[in-house]
Design goal:
Chain lengths: ~300, ~450
């Protein structure tokens, strides 16, 4: 697979943002590759450890290693250096499922942002608003998190930073009513993209998941003409539970894409491999820092290149 | 669901090893593969798992399988003991400084739940007759101060803030002065979420720490955290020095292996767990509960723990035969009582047996204090009476009551209970048969 070797400024930024995430990972892969003369069981055991430590998960790790072994056999080699290239191919393949582009080109469109508590939904919306605003789109935000103290104010501050209006009710109001009002405001103002915040909810809370269903019903009824994008925000620091989150939110909300946040830490977010490959939900954006422009479109090849080093 | 998987898997792995004897290296190795997998699925850090497996393996190889346990149960017992030991023994309470105000400082990554936890901790302190002050030092996240204010007003607790244009160090200092002026005895400092590798912000925490000298620095950790939990905990501990951990979002369906990772690298106790978004969904941390949650085995473990105490296998088999042939006597009953007493409260034990809770137990109410009388009554019976309770007539009852220092009513009650116990035993036996168990007498738990 051809990896884009041409360093673009975007790619540099991505690498910089991901530097802490990737450092441990690519360094360990490198020292693994350099530390072995042949591909023996010890080599694979160490690779297994590296992948599991990156939250790839046991099952996915075994799947990757099995595929790797097959590829190695096909090439009739036992040179550890080949592993990096082959692993890159495997990861790119695993991450290249589904449409990574957001479904927002045809106005009007609506983006609903969902996820468990504390993954960075509101921050992501602030950054998304800025991102689309800069590309000349007319944006409206809906403060659908009426539950968490301060959430509405938080969204308003983000809105004011990029001069984007926010539709809000009081804390404790019915979130479906907020979304209803926002849809009508978006229609009246001829908004290109309406981005809706929702309260963080753990996927095993039935009532809260039902509440989400109600919001979707309002959207379907009031805004059938809009192209829809339903984004699940996942925290890269999260372990195997992210799989469960994707599964349950997928069932209730029909997730169309994932935003993987907090990749500027040391966590690798390896669980997305299992989510993208196993469930076919593509990653659409990744968060690599706290600045406005640190939310970036996802690109499997560039992401993998940054992760494994060139 | 994978949650209840480990005990079953272990059981399958170790099925071939029926009976007693020592565990061989091979048995243990196979079992440990399952344990390792369960721990990794629960997000326990790889290195922590490796160390743990090594320790358990060393202990398990060559160990004698207890008579009352199957090899599978025996391995689970060792795994659980080691896991609980690693989680810390018993509860770890909050400490208070001798000179008020006692200052607690909350630190952690973004989105771990610091602000919500501040409110919960304040509520808890209020319940303990303390007067807390919340201090808003998160000047970075938009509306974080507003959030703390809202949380404070909900639990009727004052919040000190100076807006977001003042340095956290100065806010913290001024907050403590405020507490002193108003005679408030505890101060909870909310700080901004930050990455453990963000040197500027980590130094800022250090500055706050040296300015206010907190009694405790509490690291707030999301229970869903994956492998990276070790890095986060290690760095916060190394750079700032933490005194305890609060585990949040445990009301989710995560197995919470991060708890083990954090504990293993910092050696600091987990003091509380957050179990919901409401202010009172906050509990002390129980190491044993967490251990079984990570293993995914629930009450099974407590049952094994109790069963390991002396249930004598040969006696049990004898008993079973007697029950089959309906020769169950007061002597057997006495024996049983004594064995059960070693396992703890009888009601508790019966309730732990799946399928035995609730209804069936209502008419077999066993008060532990009564056991003393029961023993005395049985010991006042003659051999013939014990073997054949049918012969106990009015005058015998009177004699037994006097001999045991009880009343005739108590003797009557016991005779009635004895009949019920016989019935219960029959139920046990039927249940055993129904579950297609072997012919050994065992406490009937599922999957075992």
């Amino acid at each position: 697979m051809a990896i884009n070797e041409q360093p673009t400024s975007f790619f540099h930024k991505l690498k910089q943002g991901l530097s802490k995430t990737t450092k441990g990972f690519s360094d360990r892969i490198d020292s693994l590759v350099n530390g072995y003369d042949i591909l023996d069981d010890d080599f694979y055991a160490e690779l297994e450890e590296i992948l599991i430590t990156a939250d790839v998960g046991f099952e996915m790790t075994m799947e990757l290693i099995d595929s790797l072994k097959t590829k190695v056999r096909e090439r009739k080699t036992d040179d550890p250096y080949i592993v990096k290239t082959l692993l890159k191919e495997l990861i790119v393949d695993a991450l290249s499922i589904g449409e990574v582009k957001m479904n927002i080109d045809k106005a009007p469109s609506i983006i609903l942002v969902v996820g468990v508590n504390g993954v960075g939904k509101t921050t992501t919306i602030g950054k998304l608003a800025n991102h689309f605003n800069e590309s000349g789109k007319k944006i409206l935000l809906a403060a659908g998190d009426t539950f968490r103290a301060g959430a509405i104010d938080q969204l308003e501050i983000w809105g004011s930073r990029s001069n984007v209006p926010v539709i809000r009710h009081q804390e404790g109001a019915d979130p479906a009513a907020v979304i209803f009002d926002a849809i009508h405001a978006a229609k009246a103002r001829k908004t290109d993209i309406l981005i809706c915040d929702t309260a963080g909810r753990l996927h095993n809370k039935k009532n809260l998941m039902n509440e989400l269903g109600k919001i979707f019903k309002v959207v379907d009824r009031e805004y059938p003409e809009a192209s829809k994008e339903i984004l699940l925000v996942l925290d890269a620091t999260t372990g195997q539970n992210a799989l469960q989150q994707a599964k349950v939110f997928g069932e209730v909300a029909g997730i169309t894409g994932i935003v993987l946040t907090k990749l500027d830490g040391t966590a690798k977010g390896g669980i997305i491999l299992a989510i993208v490959k196993g469930m076919g939900i593509p990653v659409k954006m990744i968060g690599v820092g706290e600045q406005m422009d640190d939310l970036q479109p996802f690109n499997a090849i560039e992401f993998t290149a940054a992760l494994l080093g060139d | 669901m994978i949650f209840e998987g480990l005990s079953e898997k272990l059981q399958n792995t170790l099925q071939k090893l029926k009976g007693k004897g020592k565990l061989t290296e091979n048995d243990v190795k196979e079992a440990m593969r399952e344990v390792k997998l369960a721990l990794l699925e629960a997000d326990v850090n790889f290195k922590v798992v490796k160390d743990f497996i090594k320790r358990v393996t060393d202990r398990a190889i060559g160990s004698e399988v207890m008579e009352s346990l199957t090899p599978g149960q025996h391995v689970i017992k060792i795994v659980n003991e080691e896991l609980t030991a690693l989680m810390g023994s018993g509860q770890s309470k909050l400490t208070f400084s001798s000179k008020p105000p006692t200052v607690y400082m909350m630190v952690g990554l973004q989105g771990s739940g610091k602000t919500t936890t501040c409110g919960k901790l304040a509520k808890l302190l209020k319940k303990q007759q303390k007067n807390p002050l919340l201090v808003a030092c998160d000047v970075y996240r938009p509306a974080a101060i507003q959030q703390l204010k809202t949380v404070g007003s909900k639990i009727d607790t004052p919040v000190f803030s100076m807006g977001d244009a003042v340095s956290p160090v100065n806010i913290a200092k001024a907050g403590i002065e405020q507490a002193l002026r108003q005679g408030l005895d505890t101060v909870i400092i909310d700080t901004a979420g930050r990455l453990h590798i963000d040197d500027t912000l980590m130094n800022e925490l250090l500055d706050v720490k040296s300015a206010v000298k907190p009694q405790e620095i509490l690291l707030v950790v999301d229970a869903m955290t994956g492998q990276d939990a070790v890095n986060v905990a290690e760095q916060f501990h190394e750079k700032i020095g933490i005194d305890g951990v609060i585990l949040t979002k445990l009301d989710g369906d995560t197995r919470g292996g991060a708890a083990l990772s954090v504990r293993a690298v910092t050696q600091k106790p987990i003091k509380f767990v957050g179990l919901g978004e409401k202010v009172d969904e906050f509990e002390p941390f129980y190491p044993d509960r967490m251990a079984s949650r990570i293993l995914g085995m629930g009450d099974m473990l407590s049952l094994i723990e109790k069963a390991q105490s002396n249930i004598d296998m040969s006696k049990a088999q004898e008993l079973e035969k007697r029950m089959r042939t309906q020769q169950f006597t007061f002597d057997d009953f006495l024996d049983q009582l004594q064995q059960m007493k070693n396992m703890g409260s009888m009601n508790q034990i019966l309730q732990m047996i799946p399928g035995m809770g609730g209804k069936q137990l209502k008419n077999i109410d066993v008060d532990d204090r009564e056991l003393v009388y029961i023993e005395a009554i049985i010991q006042s019976m003659t051999k013939a009476e014990r073997n054949n309770p049918g012969i106990i007539n009015g005058s015998r009852r009177k004699r037994i009551a006097i001999g045991s220092g009880t009343s005739i009513q108590q003797v009557n009650k016991l005779l009635k209970q004895f009949e019920q116990t016989r019935k219960m035993m029959k139920q046990f036996m039927d249940m055993e048969k129904g579950m297609k168990k072997g012919n050994k007498f065992k406490l009937p738990f599922p999957g075992m």
